[in-house]
Amino acid sequence: MVDLKAIEAAARRIRGVVVETPLIKAHQVSAMVGTDVYLKCENLQVTGSFKARGASNFVLSLVERLGAANSEASSTFGADAQGLSGASRRLGGIITASSGNHGQAVAYAAKRVGLPCTVAVPEDVIRVKEVAIESFGAQVVRVGRTSSDRIDYAERLAAQQNLVFVPPYDHEDIVAGQGTAGLEVVHSLPEVREVYVPVGGGGLISGVSTAVKSLRPMARVIGVEPELANDTYLSMQEGRIVDIGSNTTIADGLRTSHPGSFTFPIVQKNVDEIALVSEAQITEAMRILFEAKLVVEPSGCTSVAAVLGASEAGHRFDGPVVCVLSGGNVAPEIFASVLQ
């Protein structure tokens, strides 16, 4: 399990590599639901999504471990300690699997430390995300349509070519890195009562919920999934991990087929509720956020969609609400079609 201490360590590690994103009041949404609603703008994060937090923490932690191994070797054997460690030089690089945002974040982190990077993306990857990954010098390979397809391929290649696999969500360093967004939420708005978080594989909500519940135990944490990608919702209902296979939600960043084996127990422990939103609710939230001059991808809009949906269903908010906008990497043609 990841704890507050690990998240605080991650915050120190990635400081200066990622940015502390703003928490801004959503005036229109606040008026619509009758309470103060704030937006945690991870769409303004480096690489355009929260994924930069976890990926940077994982890669920098890896480099720290390699550096520590090299220091030990140097003191014992007099090895040359310049540049990457001996273990790092033998390492073929890093590899990950992603629908786009995580791959871009890993490519960004890899470039920062000079490691070769390969990213397995879905066959129907959004082109703007593929181009963004390539812009950081990573090699892109198209594999299947489900998260399981991509992860299985990346793990096999890692074993064959001496690469380190960077999980999209199912690792303590990833979760701790994502949790830094939750730290920032509570530090910026200590009186927060509810936090709405998009849910894919569970890395973001695992980290955010751990930070929020550690610092503000009475605050409620609500995960949000599309109705068409409701694997965590079903898993919570069943009390076990449920695999739903491929899905076609517009929220491409949330098209996971099942929650992670590492993240799911954290979600079970810390998350108060999983809310579902329709495709129409997602696109309406995109339009409302655009009116507030914010470009947010469909996955990132689900948190706002859930707050609006809860209000329409009669939910009474008893204090400030935070919606995490998980990313802003939306293809121009998709964004234009939604606005039309």
Automatic annotation (TrEMBL):
Reaction(s) this enzyme catalyzes, per UniProt: L-threonine = 2-oxobutanoate + NH4(+)
Keyword field contains Lyase: yes
GO-annotated molecular function: L-serine ammonia-lyase activity; pyridoxal phosphate binding; threonine deaminase activity
GO BP term, pick one: isoleucine biosynthetic process
Superkingdom per UniProt: Bacteria
Annotated EC: 4.3.1.19
The Tryptophan synthase beta chain-like PALP domain, residue ranges: 17-327
Cofactor section: pyridoxal 5'-phosphate
Signal peptide: none
Keywords, sorted A to Z: Lyase, Pyridoxal phosphate
Lyase among keywords: yes
InterPro entries from the UniProt entry: Ser/Thr_Dehydratase, Ser/Thr_deHydtase_PyrdxlP-BS, TrpB-like_PALP, TrpB-like_PALP_sf
UniProt similarity note: Belongs to the serine/threonine dehydratase family.
Function: Catalyzes the anaerobic formation of alpha-ketobutyrate and ammonia from threonine in a two-step reaction. The first step involved a dehydration of threonine and a production of enamine intermediates (aminocrotonate), which tautomerizes to its imine form (iminobutyrate). Both intermediates are unstable and short-lived. The second step is the nonenzymatic hydrolysis of the enamine/imine intermediates to form 2-ketobutyrate and free ammonia. In the low water environment of the cell, the second step is accelerated by RidA.
Name this polypeptide is given: threonine ammonia-lyase
Organism: Alicyclobacillus ferrooxydans
